[in-house]
């Protein structure tokens, strides 16, 4: 009996999905991929509110940044799913948007258009280093103590920003920083929001950070601290940030150090996420991640596309591990994540109504989670502990990831040379040490 047109169409569709994502080979199902993708999106959807709010401090239009955040996340996530076939979603990175906003734009007074030009250039460099496999060699040349302490230092940096935005930490002329006043209503609401997120995360509730942000916003609205959004949905406004990057300004400024920091942080953030999620999902084969080059291409493409649309560096999200635990095993789950990000481009009024005291707890909590990597530092080994400690301490106290990293690299080389452990210093570290010392000599001369 001949097959009906409907059954034939269904079999062709199944065949296409199977050819693209190899569900049977990975022992996965369409239902599992959908639930995994939905879980991943809910756990990382807080970036839709946090990233526009943070980048708007540079003067960037919040509607444009929201569109760029969602469209760049969707594009990079699609590339990861279709090209690398991994259930790992991407979006603008939390550490990198903080560096973009507070160090480059506000600290160094670089216009956001020029900073986007730098992001674009760093994305091109990411892509070139990935294609030529230099990226993997750089990763292998950086000692573990600096990788782990850099991630931990960035976590403290982000948490400090969150505490400052919540006004829990304030400037003090005598002690530089001090405890804010809890009579301040914004501080009170931020603390309540943090408590909500902690309780939900302790109870393993999916999307705990997002729920906490929305709950804090609603509480502020009911108490008269914020206003209801004028609408829930609206048409996207990409023109506010679309193609606004200033490449000429970026080239004229000679911002090599900024490009390097974006490269370095994204390098290890992305690789660390890939390793963590792939280990959890059982994707690691013989100690290696198959198709790792393809996976690394996705964040380079996402970063380039993000700079064109108007957002900071795009990177892999560790929250994807929640989606893997929920059933995602292939890149098909990324198709669902990307679709949800595209739908979120119509929610600009909702995101604009979320106040800073509602997103501040998210920064604190994400920062705390990033410090988990500190446990992997060999603290009993002096020549490993000191560089790690210097990096951890300098990053938040100098309000600069670049300074924390550079001082960590210099101290690493110093203590290793003093201990006679020359062989443990890679060529990459020797080169970086020389460059960073020359940087400080130049700054001292200026």
Architecture blueprint of SSEs:
Layout: H1 5-21, H2 30-44, H3 47-55, H4 62-84, E1 90-92, H5 94-105, H6 112-131, H7 134-141, H8 144-165, E2 169-172, E3 176-179, H9 185-202, H10 208-222, H11 247-253, H12 256-281, H13 292-309, E4 314-316, H14 320-325, H15 332-344, H16 348-352, H17 356-370, H18 382-397, H19 401-418, H20 427-445
Antiparallel strand pairs: 1-4, 2-3
Helix pairs in contact: 2-15, 3-4, 3-5, 4-13, 4-15, 5-12, 6-11, 6-12, 6-13, 8-17, 8-18, 8-19, 9-10, 9-17, 10-17, 18-19, 19-20
> What structural category characterises the helix and strand content?
mainly alpha
Oligomerization:
single chain
Q: Give start-end ranges of low-pLDDT stretches.
A: none
Distance between the termini: 85 Å
Number of helices: 20
What would the average pLDDT be, to the nearest integer?
Answer: 82
Strand and helix order = HHHHEHHHHEEHHHHHEHHHHHHH
The Cα radius of gyration reads 22 Å
Number of domains: 2
Strand portion: under 5%
The coarse overall form would be globular
Please report the total strand number as a whole number.
4
Q: Roughly what percent helix? A: 55-70%
Strand order of the largest sheet: 1-4
Question: How does the major sheet shape up?
Answer: 2 strands, antiparallel
